[in-house]
Amino acid sequence: MRILGFYNSVLTMKIANPCNERGEFILPHTRPQVPLNEAAATNPWDPFNSRIKFDFVHYHFVEAQSSASLIDKALDMWAATVIESGEDALWKHSKELYATIDNIQHGDTPWKVYKL
Whole-prediction pTM value? Predict the structure, then answer.
């Protein structure tokens, strides 16, 4: 990400916008041009096995920033609908969803969490 040269007066921190490897700004949620691994070459939603799973996570984790309890409620409703057709639920609870997110790799860089 490239840092803009001004400060947000409310957050008092620099605002970052996504950019490509040349430092040119790109639209939010733009997928990488080259698959990062072999799985991504065959499944554009990797590590999710379908677009609906990717969209579910993106909505709750990125857009709505849902709490774990709200994610659990949505997963319970999803499970209730798919059980009728004999399918499996996406995840059993929010901890499984978070584990899937934590396992996402972008190149060789490990995922690290810093708490302040």
Answer: 0.54
